[in-house]
């Protein structure tokens, strides 16, 4: 079973795409809660390239690396990647009513409940939208 989350952002696909792939921007929006942050990000957006980021609790108590290798890219439309643990992620960018709908599908991990994973990825999408609107 894949998990799906989505959001509508009142901004162009180009703006959303550029914000999604820019490491400096990723470090601003890639968090599920205010007590976490992304401390570094590298992005080589090409098939075979990698997205590497580090998420940490702000109090330093926990952290993890997120690494994915791109398997398919269609500019302004689709990003597919395989995470270092073998799970797959798909991100769609769709033009919709003067804005952009972003849909993510991903394989769940075996550690956390599905609803917790869905809520966390949705919170990250919500932060993405806020960041885009703040630019």
Topology overview:
Blueprint: E1 3-9, H1 13-21, H2 23-29, E2 36-43, E3 50-57, E4 63-74, E5 78-83, E6 88-96, E7 99-106, H3 114-134
Antiparallel strand pairs: 1-7, 2-3, 3-4, 4-5, 5-6, 6-7
Helix pairs in contact: 2-3
What can you tell me about this protein's structure?
The protein is of the alpha+beta class and 135 residues long. The chain has one domain: 2-Layer Sandwich (Alpha-D-Glucose-1,6-Bisphosphate, Chain A, domain 4), CATH 3.30.530. The chain contains three helices and seven strands. The chain has helices at 13-21, 23-29, 114-134; strands at 3-9, 36-43, 50-57, 63-74, 78-83, 88-96, 99-106. Strands 1-7-6-5-4-3-2 form a seven-stranded antiparallel beta sheet. Helix 2 (23-29) packs across helix 3 (114-134). The radius of gyration is 14 Å and the shape is globular.
What is the radius of gyration computed over CA atoms, rounded to a whole number of angstroms?
14 Å
H/E element sequence: EHHEEEEEEH
Strand content: 35-45%
CATH superfamily: START domain
Would you report the number of β strands? 7
Number of helices: 3
CATH topology (level 3) name: Alpha-D-Glucose-1,6-Bisphosphate, Chain A, domain 4
Average pLDDT confidence is 97
Ranges where pLDDT stays below 50 over 5 or more residues in a row are none
Question: Quick one: biggest sheet?
Answer: 7 strands, antiparallel
Multimeric status of the protein: single chain
Largest sheet, spatial ordering of strands: 1-7-6-5-4-3-2
Shape: globular
Helix content: 25-40%
**What is the count of structural domains?**
1
Protein name: SRPBCC domain-containing protein
Family: Belongs to the AHA1 family.
Organism: Undibacterium fentianense
Domain Activator of Hsp90 ATPase homologue 1/2-like C-terminal: 11-131
């Amino acid at each position: 079973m894949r998990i799906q989350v989505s959001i509508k952002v009142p901004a162009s696909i180009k703006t959303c795409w550029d914000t999604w792939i820019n490491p400096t921007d990723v470090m601003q929006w890639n968090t599920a809660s205010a007590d976490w942050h992304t401390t570094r990000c590298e992005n080589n957006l090409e098939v075979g390239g990698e997205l590497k980021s580090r998420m940490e609790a702000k109090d330093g108590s926990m952290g993890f690396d997120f690494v994915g290798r791109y398997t398919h890219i269609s500019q302004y439309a689709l990003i597919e990647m395989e995470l270092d643990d073998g799970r797959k992620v798909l991100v769609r960018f769709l033009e919709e009513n003067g804005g952009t709908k972003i849909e993510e599908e991903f394989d769940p991990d075996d550690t956390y409940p599905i609803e917790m994973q869905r809520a966390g990825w949705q919170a990250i999408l919500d932060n993405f939208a806020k960041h885009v609107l703040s630019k």
